[in-house]
Specification:
With about 200 residues, the protein is mainly α.
Length: about 200
């Protein structure tokens, strides 16, 4: 690959513009929200942690199910960034879990911020500014959730699932946004291919 744009295009082609990953992440948020609401906040926390570890393999399987490779090409210059971003995320999740043992109501807002930071790197990985908007929406949700926790501390401990539900809603919306963008880009590519006329050989 000769440029960053080529590497970004390969990432988009391999992982369907990040749609499966965002969708699977939204499903995990939703599962954690219901677990926190119906069982306990601590159960919801562990649901997010353990189910979150399945996001990447689930998204790869979904990519392949939808007809995409689910694997970038060897030599993609952005591959190290994806790995480094994953390691950074795992380290910060460990901090969030430690915090949750003392203050479980702060876990989901902390995770919203962590995932927002992760999506900032997706802007470079996929070359899509939509991930900036997704990160901003998650940061805003985290801030609003923290304000709610501060205003009603006793009730907030019970309603820790609000942060998880907001994360699920935001990611479902942006999975749809990315899906529409991917389909529009595909249609433009098809139109471009059809508009190119074959070169006719000159008769001697």
């Amino acid at each position: 690959m000769d440029s960053i744009k080529d590497a970004q295009a390969d990432m988009r082609d391999a992982y369907f513009w990040g749609v499966p990953g965002v969708f699977c992440s939204a499903c995990v948020w939703l599962s954690a929200a219901f677990t926190s609401m119906l069982i306990s906040p601590i159960a919801g926390i562990w649901c997010l942690v353990f189910a979150g570890s399945l996001i990447f393999p689930a998204s790869v399987a979904l990519c392949k199910l939808l007809g995409y490779r689910g694997k970038h090409q060897q030599g993609n210059a952005l591959a190290p960034l994806a790995i480094e971003g994953t390691i950074w995320m795992l380290l910060t999740i460990a901090i969030a879990v430690a915090l949750a043992m003392l203050h479980p109501q702060y876990f989901f807002p902390a995770m919203l911020l962590i995932i927002a930071g992760r999506y900032l790197s997706f802007r470079t990985l996929y070359g899509l500014r939509s991930f900036y908007l997704l990160a901003f929406a998650l940061v805003l949700a985290a801030g609003l959730t923290l304000l709610y926790q501060a205003s009603s501390s006793s009730e907030a401990v019970i309603r820790t699932y609000i942060g998880a539900f907001s994360g699920a809603a935001i990611e479902f919306i942006f999975a749809l946004v990315l899906f529409v963008q991917a389909k529009q880009a595909s249609k433009k590519t098809e139109k471009t291919d059809f508009s190119v006329e074959p070169v006719k050989a000159k008769s001697s």
